[in-house]
Design brief:
heterotrimer; A mainly alpha (379); B mainly alpha (335); C alpha/beta (376); A: 379 residues; B: 335 residues; 13 helices; 2 strands
Chain lengths: 379, 335, 376
């Protein structure tokens, strides 16, 4: 009984993280119909931004906690915006395949870039980012206020540069702040970073039943997820922007005809989605304090499956799907006999396949997921 | 028939050149090795092109089929036939060919089993499922172990140790012949009415359906053919590096093959050949920059899709690959 | 237009490869170093390359070996057998090395060994523990002890020295190093009379071991054997302690890294692991090595660096005794090695595995402290 409860609680812990990532995934997919392969990488960057921050700055704990959650979210949302502007938006009219491949490319780039960096490269890329961003910003300001010579193309809008610049500045700023620390830490992207959880929060165990316990971190994860889910739900269901998002899911052209800037809606969706990924990254870093450059690959995949399970486009579905996945995986490992069982064969590696088994079952039996709408007519 | 004669002469010339220079020692074994790998990558790229490029599917698990083929033929030659590196080549060769055949059949079967339920899904889901397939294959091969006696040690073969001691039966000649076979087969398929059906499916599935093309059947056919040749490639690879490990069939590897296909051009066999050669060569040339190479691959994909989604050759082919009729049209267009 | 571009590209590639092979002849001996400098094992590759380079640089500074300057080439095997095999081929065929120190992962060593054996270039792997590696042929050597020995040492330590009779094991099922160690430990411990209460596995990359640990906790073992690399071991220790598992942690040479304590924190305190050498070793050569390594690379060496250093020592010693840069002569000399290294005297058995002892280290106050020695 104790084992069962313990496994259940740990399964929920796993599931909450999946749920958080799935939330963002499902939102973006619902509107843009694009599997963002790079989503897992955004999650990873959120974790690292938080890691750099916590290591570099020493502030009183409450402020640090809030900052450690908020800053990665902001950074990630700006990163998402930059990704959208540079890689996805130009391909909106082209066949979906191109966008998928670009997404794989972005994912490859981000994870390998982090793996390739070290304290030294971060320092120099922060410097480079500052210089480029600074000069672009100055140029943009100059164009706007001082009538710098401008190319005679009607599409030239200096404002277009501002957001990617600000995001570069922010990311660069964080790296800059921690550059000396990183060189001191001799951080290498290819190695494993250990997240100093103690600086943020002290782990406390709350006993439940005999030796079964729940930690304050697990409660915090769950609370944050629920709060974010509620906020998201409100955003999507009760605001104008949310309505535009829901409408874009169904028919982008009609929405555009209604006078809504569809590109802006998509960008906002991206911002929110990636911010959620960032939050998930921080919470994951606190729960499993070991960061690597490739830590986003598996969670990204599994979160997508969770979103599919719960119904792509449905927020409650993402939450439920994530939790079901986490618990299912946990019990798969818990119940599959390992080598000391009677057959002396270790079945636990098969638990890895649980996620994909779920995917296949869902896609074959009920492709719209738990809360999704039935699929449209296909020949 | 002039271009075909040139082609045949060119191929014979290439073969002779490689054999002579390597025998004389002018070309060292390292370069020969790279050339062999280029050819294996051509097989894998062209087979993936059939699935992704010509039929418009999005399979990201091609390395999985390669591994399946490699393991099947590897198991056969080492455990079933008991060939070692001391077995005389002429004796081992027919058994090797049998094992390649087995590899092809098993890969085809796996392709069929995977393809049938999965191919009616749209791009995105197909991608995830094929990635999952690659992972499941890895898990399965990590699982299968045998005990083998080597001298006075009892070794675990298979599983995370990898399949060891595969005899080096793939040499330049064998690989060359199979590469030729693959390219010719797929080229003939593509320019036949079956190939046209696949292209039609890629361009507009609904219209193709309305023209009476059995969509699922052709998708499965393309998938099975692609996986068969991937299996052959895997068998050749296994007997080339004499080792096979479950991690070699993972997502990263599949993405490398994807890059070859999309870099070369989705509907172009020649493009795939060029891309395979270029990528394998670059991969060796760029050794000094190490990790940065992967970063560049990512950037390459993005820029490729943004600037030149057709790839290097778009849907064009070298004239010598085109059949007579196409050649005339091509010449007429480019007068 | 397109065709000429393609031809140009092909020519460039071939030219690049061929030109890369041109080199000048001088009084020098060429040695290759292969390590996974990028890829999944990048940290391990870096240490290995550093260790070997340190020794070669020291030898060159002292005038070279037998009047020859050591020219070393470092190649990245990227942790992949195909790439690794290419690296071996490049070093042998293109750079024409006389000996190779490499590589870290057994699966890559196994891909490269046939090539080295075929071409008659001696190869010594610093850390590949798969017994099959040296069985490829008589040109293949190894600088580390193999899994069966390490597992035995660990089991004996747990049963005799710690006096514990029950143990659980948690290992990475996708890694032949940890799996091999785990299985040997299980077999040896049971043979000695101990009882294995749980034998759990996980897949590489997992950071959530709770599912397995819950199962282990239910069986209440005295010892938890964690034969994994430090990154997993530290995390497992942490999660185990959080869960209330009170077992003593025991591990293998994969624990050896300063990062073990960064990741494991307080949880790993009081753990023990089998290693090749100890930083605190009073052997003068070892002390000097630690000091030199720290001076050059600004951090403490780990076991991989030390083993690479030893592999380099063995190679240079073989060259010295062979008095030539001829690969066959070096191989023959290497077989007869009887050398005092960082850990004691190294001799090779009939399978070209070194006969050497191990040490047991204890995790104390954030350091790995010497506890005991075990000789074969």
């Amino acid at each position: 009984m104790e084992t069962f409860l313990s496994q259940l609680i740990f399964g929920l812990q796993r599931g909450t993280i999946y749920a958080l990532i799935a939330l963002g995934y499902t939102m973006v997919y619902g509107v843009v119909r694009l599997i963002n392969f790079a989503y897992g990488e955004v999650f990873m960057i959120g974790a690292f931004v938080s890691f750099f921050l916590v290591n570099a700055v020493s502030l009183p704990q409450p402020i640090l906690v809030v900052l450690a959650l908020l800053l990665p979210m902001i950074t990630c949302s700006l990163l998402g915006l930059a990704m959208d502007a540079l890689a996805y938006r130009p391909l909106r009219q082209k066949p979906r395949l191109a966008a998928l491949i670009t997404a794989i490319g972005v994912s490859f780039f981000l994870s390998n870039f982090v793996s390739y960096s070290s304290g030294e490269t971060v320092r120099s890329s922060a410097l480079a980012a500052f210089i480029i961003a600074g000069s672009l910003l100055l140029y943009a300001l100059g164009v706007k206020y001082l009538n710098f010579p401008v190319k005679a193309t009607p599409n030239f809008k200096p404002v277009k540069f501002v957001i990617p610049i600000v995001s570069l500045l922010l990311v660069g700023g964080i790296f800059w702040v921690s550059k000396d620390l990183l060189v001191e830490l001799r951080w290498k992207g290819s190695s494993f970073a250990s997240y100093p959880v103690e600086r943020l929060i002290a782990i406390e165990k709350i006993p439940l039943y005999k030796t079964v316990y729940i930690t304050n971190i697990q409660i915090m994860n769950f609370a944050v997820s629920v709060v974010l889910m509620v906020v998201l739900s409100y955003l999507v269901n009760r605001t104008m922007t949310g309505m535009a998002m829901r409408a874009s899911k169904n028919n982008k052209d009609a929405v555009a005809l209604m006078g809504v800037n569809v590109n802006r809606v998509i960008s906002i969706t991206f911002i929110i989605g990636t911010a959620l990924a960032g939050a998930a990254g921080v919470l994951s870093a606190v729960t499993y304090p070991r960061l690597t450059a490739f830590m986003g690959v598996q969670p990204g995949l599994k979160a997508f499956i969770a979103a599919v399970l719960g119904g792509i486009g449905s927020i409650e579905g993402a939450m439920l799907g994530g939790i079901i996945m986490g618990v299912a995986e946990q019990f798969a490992i818990g119940l599959l006999p390992s080598s000391y069982g009677p057959s002396r064969i270790d079945f636990t590696p098969l638990a890895d396949g649980v996620a994909f088994a779920i995917l296949i079952v869902v896609l074959l039996l009920r492709p719209q997921g738990i809360f999704g709408e039935p699929p449209r007519e296909k020949l | 028939m002039k271009p075909t004669t040139y082609t045949i002469l060119g191929l014979i010339g290439f073969y002779a050149l490689v054999m002579v220079t390597s025998a004389l020692g002018v070309m060292n074994d390292y370069i020969l090795r790279v050339i062999n790998l280029m050819m294996i990558n051509i097989i894998l790229g062209v087979s993936l092109n059939l699935i992704n490029g010509y039929t418009g599917l999005f399979s990201v698990g091609h390395a999985g089929f390669m591994i399946v083929g490699g393991y099947v033929s590897g198991f056969m030659t080492t455990l079933l036939f008991g060939i070692t590196k001391d077995t005389p080549y002429m004796e081992a060769l027919p058994l090797f060919l049998v094992s390649i055949l087995a590899a092809a059949l098993v890969s085809a079967l796996v392709g069929f089993l995977i393809g049938l339920p999965v191919l009616r899904l749209t791009d995105d889901y197909l991608a995830i499922v094929t990635i999952g397939f690659g992972e499941i294959i890895r898990v399965i091969f990590n699982f299968i172990t045998f005990k083998k006696k080597v001298g006075n040690w009892e070794l675990d073969v298979g599983g995370p140790r990898g399949l060891l001691g595969i005899p080096p039966l793939s040499n330049f000649t064998v690989i060359f012949i199979f590469t030729l076979f693959t390219v010719v087969f797929i080229r003939n398929f593509v320019f036949s009415r079956h190939g046209r059906a696949c292209i039609a499916i890629r361009e507009n599935e609904v219209a193709a359906h309305m023209m009476g093309i059995p969509i699922t059947r052709y998708k499965v056919l393309a998938f099975v053919l692609g996986s068969t040749f991937a299996g052959i490639g895997g068998a050749l690879l296994a007997h080339f590096i004499q080792l096979l490990h479950p991690t070699m069939g993972g997502f990263m590897k599949s993405v490398e093959y994807l890059i070859i296909v999309y870099l070369g051009g989705m509907g172009s066999i020649s493009g795939t050949i060029v891309a395979a050669v270029a990528l394998t060569g670059l991969s060796e040339l760029l050794r000094p920059i190490g990790e940065l190479r992967m970063v560049l691959y990512g950037v390459l994909l993005v820029i490729l899709m943004l600037k030149r989604p057709g790839g290097l050759m778009g849907q064009r082919e070298f004239p010598f690959l085109l059949p007579e009729r196409e050649r005339k049209i091509y010449a007429a267009q480019n007068r | 237009m397109k065709k000429s571009l393609v031809v140009l590209l092909a020519l460039a590639v071939v030219l690049g490869l061929v030109l890369g092979g041109c080199q000048k002849q001088a009084k020098e001996v060429k040695i290759g170093i292969i390590a996974p400098i990028s890829g999944e094992a990048a940290t391990f590759g870096e240490s290995t390359a550093n260790g070997a380079k340190l020794y070669f640089d020291q030898v060159n500074a002292a005038g070279g070996v037998e009047g020859m300057k050591i020219v070393y080439f470092v190649e990245d095997d990227k942790g992949d057998p195909t790439e690794g095999a290419n690296a071996y081929s490049k070093l042998i065929d293109q750079n024409k090395v006389s000996a190779i120190v490499g590589t870290v992962m057994s699966k890559v060593s196994l891909a490269g060994a046939p090539i080295a054996q075929n071409k008659g270039v001696p190869m010594i792997s610093p850390t590949s523990t798969n017994p099959a590696v040296t069985l490829v042929g008589n040109y293949i050597f190894r600088a580390c002890f193999i899994d069966p020995f390490q597992g035995f040492v660990a089991a004996k330590f747990a049963y005799n020295d710690l006096g514990k009779k029950t143990a659980a094991v948690i290992y990475d099922s996708g890694n032949d190093y940890t799996k091999g160690l785990a299985e040997v430990f299980r077999d040896e411990f049971t043979k000695m009379g101990g009882k294995i209460t749980a034998f759990e596995s996980y897949t590489a990359g997992t950071s959530d071991f709770n599912a397995q640990l819950v199962k282990i906790k239910a069986t209440n073992p005295d010892v938890l054997f964690i034969p994994n690399y430090y990154n997993d071991a530290g995390l497992i220790a942490k999660q185990a302690r959080e869960m209330g598992i009170k077992a003593i942690f025991l591990g293998g040479d994969g624990w050896d890294s300063p990062d073990l304590f960064k990741i494991g924190g307080k949880a790993i305190e009081g753990g023990f692991f089998v290693n090749h050498f100890s930083k605190d070793s009073q052997v003068p050569a070892a002390k000097k090595f630690v000091a030199d390594y720290k001076a050059k690379y600004n951090k403490d060496p780990d076991a991989l660096a030390a083993l690479a250093y030893e592999a380099a020592m063995i190679t240079v010693d073989a060259i010295k005794r062979a008095k030539s840069s001829d690969p066959k002569a070096i191989r023959d000399a290497m077989e007869k090695t009887n050398l005092e290294t960082l850990t004691g005297v190294v001799k090779f058995d009939q399978n070209r595995n070194p006969v050497k002892g191990a040490v047991i280290l204890e995790c104390k106050d954030g350091q790995a402290v010497y506890k005991a020695s075990v000789n074969p």
